[in-house]
């Protein structure tokens, strides 16, 4: 180690002396910091063909290229297919490889380049994501093209995927919260594709031929959205997309199943019961209320976000956590959140508690979800909610692919073109009167459906209009 010189000691002495003799802040008082500037990323849109939308956001931070393809071939576009088919297809597609590199051979070659692949399914789409190093672009293009155009949907991949999905179905009732939300979804979307829980019986009826037919009749005929980010030149995108994507074979499905706010509200009101008990022997119960709300692009969206934060979406700052858990010690967790879709939303309010305190929590949640609560919200609480939500706004723009996913969702939901640019102003413009108004319409207890997951013995016997079912029974 080098010894400190006399010059070093002199510098330290002078520095310390300056710090002692100077007023706090003098050392940096003349330094001018530039104002923080925020620029909205510019997502570029094009169409490879009338049924293929391309969204592009360049990002040269790393020598990596990423593409995500949404094939709109899910059950909402094709309601006659069993819901298990897109689920098992996605996993089989990933495991099956290609005709020239079947099964693990494809994975070995793809991963040898340090590349990543995922295949997922949703109610409306099959989503395939590729990510690779730019220096292996030539090799990666060929592999991607083969994967999309010549998948190997064989017996081995099918059997593995079927077994995996079968085990998930058999074990889905082990978590009481997952059970409660699954049954809540069945209630909210009764008679709709989203209300169909997966079934072992329908799964057993599928075969490898089912996968091939689904690829040919649904995936190959569907419209697509292509999200591209990474180290790209915009000029090369058109050729790349045309090179890797299979041609659309037929006319894509253009409309999906009606799940409008009006349709879902009508279905929920038609139920002859307002309390559903999912009878399951368990030491922890879940009390869950749900209601139907407006579409994502509805003007009430901003006020709903803020009232939700105050009621249950703000963690330990929310009424649910402070009044149910902190004050009463009745909850393991207590929260609320809205799920916004293109033509409706579903609002969930849930608390996980001990079996013995189920009805006390049920009543307390109802008291919180009342006009009295909405009327007593203070300007300070509203201001804190606005600040918390706006503080999170910047995190929408920290990842290029997430930016593209959000942009795609906004376009699918017909959001205004200036949605992000006006978001902060719209949040800031919400008033206490807005919260009181939308509280009466969407949050009030008498407008919500109630569900209790746990042993029936923990529920009050005189609950009005109640039905009891088991975890695997259909919602009546």
Automatic annotation (TrEMBL):
GO function terms (MF aspect): metal ion binding
Leader sequence segment: none
Domain Peptidase M16 N-terminal: 97-198
UniProt xrefs under Pfam families: Peptidase_M16 (PF00675), Peptidase_M16_C (PF05193)
Domain Peptidase M16 C-terminal: 206-388
PANTHER family, alphabetized: METALLOPROTEASE, NON-PEPTIDASE HOMOLOG YMXG
Name the record gives this protein: Peptidase M16
Record organism: Leptospira perolatii
